[in-house]
Amino acid sequence: MKKLLIKNATLVNEGSIFISDVLISNNRIERIAKSITLEHKNNEVIEAEGLYLLPGMIDDQVHFREPGLTYKASLYSESKAAIAGGITSFMDMPNTIPNTLTLELLEEKYQLAQKNSLANYSFFMGINKFNLEEALRINNETVCGLSDDGLYFDNDEGILANYPDFLAELFSKTNSLVALHCEDDAIIKSAFNFYDKLHEGDISVKYHPLIRSNNACVTATKRVILLAEKFNTRLHILHVSTLNETDFFRTDLPLREKRITGEACVHHLWFSDEDYLKLGNKIKWNPSIKTREDKDGLLKALKEKKLDIIATDHAPHTLSEKEGKYINAKSGGPLVQHALPLMLELYHQGKISLEDIVEKTSHNVAEIYRIKDRGYLREGYFADMVIVDLNKSWISSQDAILYKCEWSPFDNVLFKSKIIKTFVNGNLIFDNGTFNENIKGKRLAFEKER
Predict the structure, then answer these.
(1) What pLDDT score does 177 carry?
(2) Which pLDDT tens digit goes with each residue over 386-403?
(3) Residue 245, H or E segment
């Protein structure tokens, strides 16, 4: 059997940075040692002196739009962009068309990914007013969890955070991880009506963080966490966007003992409300990008272990869907191709360490979701890895974009680090801009107990 040896790489793994060789065989890491010599001539050797080897990023929140919305993204196009961006595994949200609200539709998405995804994959089962009993039937060992992200509770409006009675029923019955989007609809609606009247129906996007406000997030997050604590539910709060919300998360427990966890997303760590003037609707997300204080507070919360992971909430729309008046522009944007380079840029700025980047984008995601044999550079684990040159600058340009929507909020941004190679299950899938598309990713497997 052919083996692959990576020589003299600088590994970033489990809180340490050290130079080592890594031997890969049969999809997995066979050995990590200071010096490894291969006996057979037909094996492959990659010299990585001066380069950094990281576990591949595991993104627990993406919207790859398939099925039903493939005019703006697909499992193939976005997994390809993700791999170029150092993401080796993803978990996709249920707001496709049709919404993923039955076990049959859920398995159809897995079948699509098996044929089309270059990265490893899992899919959330959607949850709303009508499918509680169906959602409770998911297999925790083969499905990452339940989520309402991108869905309406009753086909008309609202997300689960605004329906405490239903949440109480869900929380009392499920033994799965529940990942929720937390904003208060009544507060948002009231603020929107105020600014709509004030500006006679022509609201500027700069008011987005005042409409989808700090108060809307804090109120909903507090409500949901209190309910989860009551029922000891395994709850994960998606895309925390305010400094104030971070105070609801505990730091006195080891990660695997936490019943309530939270995440920050890359756009909330990079942008602030000062950027609406330049980028407009391109950075319109829900929850909204807020103040510089919130942005800095999220990074601080990650360092203090209040927040546990970093995700993208990659949610592409066509450029035409993002243009025009604020009220008509869709929320969301493409991020996976730029996520890890962006985090490495924050490292160069002295805002986060390499060890923390790896912990929050890989180790902790594997721990929170109980993913089997992934998320670390460990012997016996799947060889999902990224080789990075921390000293190779590049400018993000239109002609290099791999997103099907063909635009990025990072156009003309200078990045000081470049992803050189990405390995998925030990296979070199991305190599200096060239892809091996013959080998597809694998379905993620999980521990039964969450």
Answers:
(1) 98
(2) 999 999 999 999 899 999
(3) none
390's CB contacts (< 8 A; 6+ apart) are: 52, 344, 348, 416, 417
- Residues 334, 408 contacting (CB under 8 angstroms): yes
Structural tokens at position 124: 């959330």
User: Which residues is 120 bridged to in the sheet?
Assistant: 89
Separation CA 381–CA 363 (nearest Å): 12
Domains of the chain by start residue, with CATH:
4-53+378-435 (2.30.40.10), 57-369 (3.20.20.140)
CB 433 within 8 A of CB 78: no
Closest CA to 178 of 216, 148, 137, 208: 148
Which residues, other chains included, contact 4 with Cβ-Cβ below 8 Å and sequence gap of 6+? Answer: 23, 24, 25, 43, 44, 45, 46, 426, 428
Tokens 């044929």 belong to residue:
115
Distance CA 160, CA 295 (A): 26
Spatial separation of the C-alpha atoms in residues 276 and 212, rounded to whole Å: 14
pLDDT of residue 33: 98
The one-letter amino acid code at 146 reads: L
Q: What is the pTM of this model?
A: 0.97
Q: Residue 9's Cα: distance from chain center in Å?
A: 26
CA quadruple 233, 234, 237, 242: dihedral, nearest 10: 70
Return contacts of 154-161, CB within 8 angstroms, 24+ apart: 154/128, 154/129, 154/130, 155/128, 155/129, 157/185, 158/185, 159/183, 159/185, 160/127, 160/128, 160/224, 161/220, 161/221, 161/223, 161/224
Those residues of the chain that have pLDDT short of 70 are 155-156
Smallest CA-to-CA distance from 269 within 356, 206, 147 is with 356
User: What tens digit of pLDDT does each residue of 148-201 get?
Assistant: 999 988 766 789 999 999 999 999 999 999 999 999 999 999 999 999 999 999
Q: How many residues are given for the chain?
A: 450
Q: Is 447 helix (H, G, I), strand (E, B) or coil?
A: coil
- Please report which residue ranges of 117-155 form alpha helices under DSSP H: 132-135
CB atoms within 10 A of CB 134: 17
